[in-house]
Amino acid sequence: MKRIAIFASGSGSNAENICEYFAHREDVDVSLIFTNNPMAGVIKRALKSQIPVVFFDRKTFYHTGKIPQILQNEGIDLVVLAGFMMLVPPVLVEAFPNKMINIHPALLPKYGGKGMYGHFVHEAVVNAGETESGITIHYVNEHYDEGDIIFQASCEVTPGDSPDDVARKVHTLEYAHYPRVIDEILNRQ
Ligand code: GAR
């Protein structure tokens, strides 16, 4: 049995989609959902999927080894960031080398880095007049959005598209590909 932990800070629609994808699988278990945000929509979704939620604050995340310790005690094989907005500290990156992945809502290396998350990304893409955007799934290192790229998929951005339109197209790609890519990575481990 392979065990996944998901980290999310917001709505958690990707987290829910991943939970649904693996819900009836005997060989993969979404074991824990971590969040830094007590108001996050992901909490309700985790309850619906009956997956335990671990809350943590900045101090615990950046100044203790508690989070990697919980993940190791729980036998987590892959850490999946899904709309998680904090920079991952070295202590956690080092505990899960090549076993922590993120999804970014653009075609990295464009539109990545500090402050480039969620809606800000789609606004920047539209403001720059891009004709395409997409998703990037990548390994996580100590820098925002800089780990090795595992998979990308693109979508068209047309002149009349608003940031919300782009967000919808990108979410469609995320839902179609993130669980499948996670599955492939687990199979290779
Ligand atoms: C997703 O589009 C994800 O790619 C993005 O936040 C959204 C979360 O949506 N992540 C980042 O911007 C990370 N830099 P969700 O909470 O509904 O899954």
From TrEMBL:
It comes from the Bacteria. The record marks D145 as: Raises pKa of active site His. Its EC number is 2.1.2.2. N(1)-(5-phospho-beta-D-ribosyl)glycinamide binds at G12, S13, N14. Keywords: Purine biosynthesis, Transferase. One of its GO terms (molecular function) is phosphoribosylglycinamide formyltransferase activity. Pathway: Purine metabolism; IMP biosynthesis via de novo pathway; N(2)-formyl-N(1)-(5-phospho-D-ribosyl)glycinamide from N(1)-(5-phospho-D-ribosyl)glycinamide (10-formyl THF route): step 1/1. SUPFAM superfamilies: Formyltransferase. It catalyses: N(1)-(5-phospho-beta-D-ribosyl)glycinamide + (6R)-10-formyltetrahydrofolate = N(2)-formyl-N(1)-(5-phospho-beta-D-ribosyl)glycinamide + (6S)-5,6,7,8-tetrahydrofolate + H(+). InterPro entries: Formyl_transf_N, Formyl_transf_N_sf, GART, GART_AS. Transmembrane segments: none annotated. Pfam families: Formyl_trans_N. Gene3D superfamilies: Formyl transferase, N-terminal domain (3.40.50.170). (6R)-10-formyltetrahydrofolate binds at N102. CDD domains: FMT_core_GART. Residues 2-182 form the Formyl transferase N-terminal domain. The keyword Nucleotidyltransferase does not apply. GO terms for biological process: 'de novo' IMP biosynthetic process. The active site is at H104. GO terms for cellular component: cytosol. Belongs to the GART family. PANTHER family: PHOSPHORIBOSYLGLYCINAMIDE FORMYLTRANSFERASE. Catalyzes the transfer of a formyl group from 10-formyltetrahydrofolate to 5-phospho-ribosyl-glycinamide (GAR), producing 5-phospho-ribosyl-N-formylglycinamide (FGAR) and tetrahydrofolate. This is Phosphoribosylglycinamide formyltransferase. It comes from Dyadobacter fermentans (strain ATCC 700827 / DSM 18053 / CIP 107007 / KCTC 52180 / NS114). The lineage of its organism: Bacteria, Pseudomonadati, Bacteroidota, Cytophagia, Cytophagales. The gene is purN.
